[in-house]
Amino acid sequence: MSDTIEKVKCLIIGSGPAGYTAAIYAARANMNPVLYQGTQPGGQLTTTNEVENFPGYPDGITGPEMMVQLEVQAKRFGTDVRNGWVTKVDFSGDIHKVWINDEKEMHCETVIISTGASAKYLGLPSEQHYLNMGGGVSACAVCDGFFYRNQEVVIVGAGDSACEEAHYLAKMCKKVTMLVRSEQFRASKIMEERVRNTENIEILMHTETDEVLGDGQVVTGVRAKNKTTGELKEIPATGFFVAIGHKPNTDVFKDFITLDETGYIVNVPGTSKTNISGVFVAGDAADHVYRQAITAAGTGCMAALDAERYLAAKGH
User: Fold this and answer.
1) 287 vs 23, 62, 113, 139, 297, CA distance in Å?
2) pLDDT at position 184
3) How are beta strands 246-248 and 34-36 bridged, if at all?
4) So which residues are the catalytic ones?
5) 198 vs 66: CA distance, rounded Å
6) Most distant CA pair in the chain: distance in Å?
7) Are 19 and 298 spatial neighbours (Cβ–Cβ below 8 Å)?
8) What's the whole-model pTM score?
9) Of residues 2 and 223, which shows the higher confidence score?
10) Which ranges in 140-236 belong to alpha helices (H)?
């Protein structure tokens, strides 16, 4: 086994804006980073058609194109970008051990976790079809709401973030229909009141999504089902927003890294440090508040600088 162990100064796990920004900084600091792209190379942004709110792109850019550019930039400074994902870790000793694809063992002086989070979807075939087409299904109102100005949209969810996103959409869309599965909101009272008091938000309680309707290319409406009466209702809409939460991709670390009750990594406030010395976190794996490409990139920079200082203090 020993001949397959690879020793690295800096291992970066994940390839979204956080991982690639960390790689750019780490590579420029001569830390010779190795970056594993994970199961979704490019991360959540690869499911986003247009990115218009990232500074420096006045004409906007597509999510996939932006991630390709970040990868090229990271490689330009010497980052070793690889396919593969982490299947096991052991952070119990001084050496941080990480296994790739269940077979390759790596011993790392520093580890930067930038595994992100995955938006939860309903899982309907029609929903996935239009999501993959980029034809009107989204899990981020802040990212995509702008494209639906003066149009009618549907949003699914019952928590604080669903209410926040519905309210955000209401400011630019003609009408927002909110589908809440149970007979009550999960959101705080103040957030619920805010959507109830917004005149262009219609709330359908005890209602679930039966089907996302469209012409094959773009969304044209949503068929909703009243769970009490079984009645089906077709709601015209050009956008379908799913706000039923995110799941951080952190399960593999849970035996060693402190997570909060929903699975996000707990960092030392104001830093990228975790409870394990030499292991750092960047991006949406630790951020359930902002979840933007620009904030993820910022924490990627922090993680690389924290890792560099950690190595310097150890005399490396």
Assistant:
1) 19, 23, 12, 16, 12
2) 94
3) unpaired
4) 140, 143-144
5) 36
6) 69
7) no
8) 0.85
9) 223
10) 141-144, 160-170, 189-196
